[in-house]
Design goal:
By secondary structure, this protein is mostly helical. The chain contains 2 helices and no strands.
Length: 55
């Protein structure tokens, strides 16, 4: 992963670690953005894209 992508992943992890509802909402919104971008790259509707987290 590029350094920029890693920085975003770490930032989201910090937000989730705070436990604040507003932080969780922000991360969820970013997931919707990621889904939309992936759909655009694939040329499909966003509601057909499923994101699978990994560890």
């Amino acid at each position: 992963m590029s350094q920029a992508v890693r920085a975003e992943v770490f930032a989201d992890a910090d937000l989730l670690g705070s436990g604040r509802p507003s932080s969780r909402k922000l991360v969820a919104e970013r997931l919707d953005e990621a889904r939309a971008l992936a759909a655009e790259l694939l040329g499909v509707a966003a509601d057909t894209v499923t994101l699978q987290p990994s560890s």
